[in-house]
Amino acid sequence: MIHTPFARARSIPLLALALLTAATMACATLNPAPHPEIVWNPAADAEVLAYTCGGGMEPMNAYANAIAPLTIWGDGRAIWTTSNPAGGRRVMVTQFTNEGLRAILEHVSAAGFFGWRDLYEPDQPVMDAGSCSLSVSLTGTDKRVTVADFAESPPNMDELVSWLLQTAGETGTDFVPTRGYLQTWLLLDATGPADRVWPADGIDGVRLGDAQGGLLVEGEALRAAWDIVNADTYMIVECDGGYYQLTVQVEGVTERWDAAP
């Protein structure tokens, strides 16, 4: 979710507006945004840039299945998500070169990111509101900017986030997990019809009833479950007369990884 500042109509005399603009430019000149050296940890498990959204009142399924809109690691690997009007998502992966990742981080710095406040909140408290955060981790510099729902974003943040997602989306392929943590939730009050049917004898031996306590899965069972949660987080699936909802977590990809070591 990208935060768009609320438009506020104001009536300001032209002279006052000119003075305000001049003062703003003078402050920007006297207090420019910091630009740290663009050096980062190149490790494959070092998170260098992430744009995340969450919070507020959401069912357990949403938290358990959540994937950040964009994450880039130190080796240049990036995973991001796109959404469709039907409520589903597509999970993509790409690999930036060292030069490509440097260009992205330099663009973030040039946008003024390191000079923004850490937190932007609405004028009035909003109950159960969520937020979105953009974070960058460089060698010696960690910065996280959080914008709560209904708050006014810092200058250029909306444009920067759109640019980041577009840049990632220029290349990439569908992410295909090889191992996941499947958990199913039996819906006691559901009577159907179901959105999909899972074979009563299971897929690769995995039945939905067996995964109520959580189950590590691979192969066709993982592929089928991954397809379901990406099509609709709240999809109802029938298996052997029972109605279930699914969550699938992938280590290093979903925001949660509940699988036991």
Number of domains: 2
End-to-end Cα distance = 33 Å
- Reading off the top of the CATH hierarchy, the class of the largest domain is best stated as Alpha Beta
| Model regions low in confidence, pLDDT < 50 over at least 5 residues | 1-30
Count of β-strands: 13
State which percent range the strand residues make up: 25-35%
Which CATH architecture of the largest domain is right?
A: 2-Layer Sandwich
Categorize the overall geometry: globular
Number of helices: 5
Compressed to H and E, one letter per element, the order equals HEHEEEHEEEHEEEEHEE
Task: Give the spatial strand order of the biggest sheet.
Answer: 5-7-6-1-2-3-4-8
Structural class: alpha+beta
Portion in helices = 10-25%
Task: Describe this structure as you would to a colleague.
The protein is an alpha+beta fold and 261 residues long. It folds into two domains: 47-174, Mago nashi protein, CATH 3.30.1560; 180-249, no CATH class. Helix content is 24%, strand content 27%. The protein has helices at residues 14-30, 60-65, 98-110, 157-169, 219-231; strands at residues 47-55, 70-73, 77-83, 89-95, 119-120, 130-138, 141-148, 173-174, 180-186, 196-197, 215-217, 237-239, 242-249. The strands form two sheets. Strands 5-7-6-1-2-3-4-8 form an eight-stranded mixed beta sheet, covered by helices on one side. The protein has a five-stranded mixed beta sheet with strand order 10-12-13-9-11. Strand 3 (77-83) and strand 4 (89-95) form a beta hairpin. The model is unreliable at 1-30 (pLDDT under 50).
